[in-house]
Amino acid sequence: MSFRMEKYNPQKHDPQKVAEIIYAADVELNSYVLGEKKEAVQTIIKLLEMGNNYFASPYLECALYQDKLVGIVVSSTVKDKLKLDRSSGMAFLKAFGLWTFLKRFPTMIKMDKIVNSNLDDDGFFIHFLSVDLPYQNQGIGTKIIENILKKHEKLYVDVNINNMQGKNFYEKMGFKVQSKNLIKIKNKEIGTYSLRTKE
C-alpha cells in the first residue's frame, strides 16, 4: 500500500477537497456549527487560510494513497487544544462574519459541552478524522491511527452518538468509552461518546 501522511499545504493539496473531507467527518454535528455543506465548505476554506484555529496547517495532515488525497486528520496535543479552543473563536468570527457568528454562537457554546474536557496534559486529541467516501473500508483510517500511535500513546477522540461505525472503529483500535455527553438543540438530543486509548 503506497500510503503516507503529510502536513496540509494549500499549494499541494486542494483546499476545496480538504474542506469537503473535513465536513464529511461528521455532517450532522458540523452542520449545527458550520451550516449546510456549500456554506460550510467555504467557511472551512477560509479557516484553512488562517492561523490560530483547528484547521491551521500545523494541526492538519493529509492522508495520501498512490499520491491521491484520501483522508484528513486534524489533531493536536491537549496543551495546544486548550490554546486552540481560545483562539479559534476569533478565527470563526472572521470566517463567518459578525452576523452569522452571533447567530451561531449560542449553538457553539452548547456544543462545547459534548466535547471531552477530562483530558490529561500529556495526551493527544483527534479533532477530526475522515476518509473520503470512495476510499472507506480499505484500511486508510487504521493507517492514520497507527501513524499517530507511533508518536503518541494517549489519544482522545469524540464520536457522534449516532455514528456506531465510528465508535466501533475506535474501539477496535483500542479506545475505550470514557463518557457519553448529551445536549438538546432545537428539541433534538445530540451528543458524543468520548473515547481514549490509555488510562
TrEMBL record:
UniProt domain N-acetyltransferase: residue ranges: 118-199
GO molecular-function terms, A-Z: acyltransferase activity, transferring groups other than amino-acyl groups
Domain of life: Archaea
CDD domains cross-referenced by the UniProt entry: NAT_SF (cd04301)
Database matches in Pfam families: Acetyltransf_7 (PF13508)
Full protein name: GNAT family N-acetyltransferase
